[in-house]
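// run 5 | inverse folding | seed 20
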């Protein structure tokens, strides 16, 4: 299950409704659940009061109940640790107690939305990720995922338009701008030890710019991901909006395919699995070939990636995995925006 923010944890505390939502996915035969983004212990790590915290007595007690229930049902789960960085306020107008913080205060190219972090802020932020990862392990989670994608804090360091720093955390090249994440991953590795899997979610695209590319070539991608692998990442969760899109001209490999080839690490692919019109139409019997699933399997069988994350399809339908395995295609529930209104 791909990480999906649900905003059903008032005051940052996940309650039984959140635990039961994940348990339903275990019962639906999801192999590994990545939690919704859950924020680390910084005053401005969140832009929504209903997003769960991964710090503090009550939220951690809530997460303990989640992982206990998930594992009692036979499930495996990792929390996704998140810091939003500099973002635009949500429609609700809610704001954290201190300004949003990021590498240079930019939300996007030339647009200020918060403050630039001092070196002290950076050190403290790295510590909070390490603490959250240690807490995840202590609570009994099976692994941890660091949210380094989609234009949020860690990705804001990677991306030149939002990282204009002139100290050791900035620079003209991607490896220079990767230093923050490398130090963060090293700290997380140190805090959880060697026998605990660390996944890092990364993306070329940003919520601020769907067409953004951090790495324009495989060589550049190598200079980005290899230092992160060396710092302690076990799994690269390669976020794409459409898994079948090639990452670079001249090869049909997607992002997860390239990440695996360049780092030798385990990779996760994601993006419109089971939700293309073709796929659903095919499973309803409206077209002759379920082309999207075929393409996923072709890439999987070729060894491009090791795991497949499913987002919206699982949000809308807790039983999606089992239905796919049992070929109960007529019972699949498609995704619509209304599915966001409740934790079904
Ligand atoms: C409602 C919703 C919330 C999301 N929240 C997160 C999140 O907290 N962290 C994250 O890394 N991605 C998040 N995503 C992205 C998903 O993990 C996934 O990459 C994306 O939906 C594409 O997969 P899909 O086509 O199977 O839905 C979210 C997506 C949706 C639809």
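// decoded
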């Amino acid at each position: 299950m791909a990480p999906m923010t649900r905003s059903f944890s008032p005051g940052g505390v996940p309650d039984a409704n959140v635990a039961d939502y994940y348990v339903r996915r275990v019962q639906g035969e999801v192999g590994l659940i990545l939690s919704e983004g859950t924020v680390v212990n910084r005053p401005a790590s969140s832009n929504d009061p209903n997003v769960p915290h991964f710090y503090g007595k009550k939220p951690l007690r809530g997460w303990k109940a989640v992982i206990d229930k998930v594992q009692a049902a036979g499930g495996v789960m990792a929390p996704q640790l998140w810091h939003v960085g500099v973002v635009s306020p949500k429609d609700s107008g809610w704001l954290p107690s201190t300004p949003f913080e990021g590498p240079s205060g930019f939300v996007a190219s030339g647009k200020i939305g918060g403050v630039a972090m001092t070196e002290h802020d950076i050190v403290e932020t790295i510590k909070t990720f390490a603490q959250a990862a240690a807490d995840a392990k202590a609570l009994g989670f099976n692994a941890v995922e660091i949210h380094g994608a989609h234009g949020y804090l860690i990705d804001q360091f990677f991306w030149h338009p939002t990282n204009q720093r002139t100290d050791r955390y900035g620079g003209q090249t991607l490896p220079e701008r990767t230093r923050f994440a490398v130090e963060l991953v090293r700290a997380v590795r140190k805090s959880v030890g060697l026998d605990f899997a660390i996944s890092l979610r990364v993306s070329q695209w940003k919520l601020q710019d769907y067409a953004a590319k951090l790495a324009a070539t495989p060589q550049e991608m190598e200079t980005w991901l290899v230092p992160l692998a060396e710092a302690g990442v076990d799994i690269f969760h390669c976020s794409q909006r459409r898994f079948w899109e090639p990452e670079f001209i001249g090869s049909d490999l997607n992002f997860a395919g390239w990440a695996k080839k360049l780092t030798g690490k385990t990779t996760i692919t994601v993006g419109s699995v089971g939700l293309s019109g073709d796929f659903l139409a095919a499973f309803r019997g409206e077209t002759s070939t379920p082309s999207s699933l075929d393409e996923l399997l072709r890439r999987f069988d070729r060894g491009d990636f090791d795991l497949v994350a499913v987002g919206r399809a699982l949000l809308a339908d807790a039983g999606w995995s089992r239905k796919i395995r049992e070929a109960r295609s007529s019972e699949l529930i498609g995704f619509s925006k209304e599915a966001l209104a409740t934790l079904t």
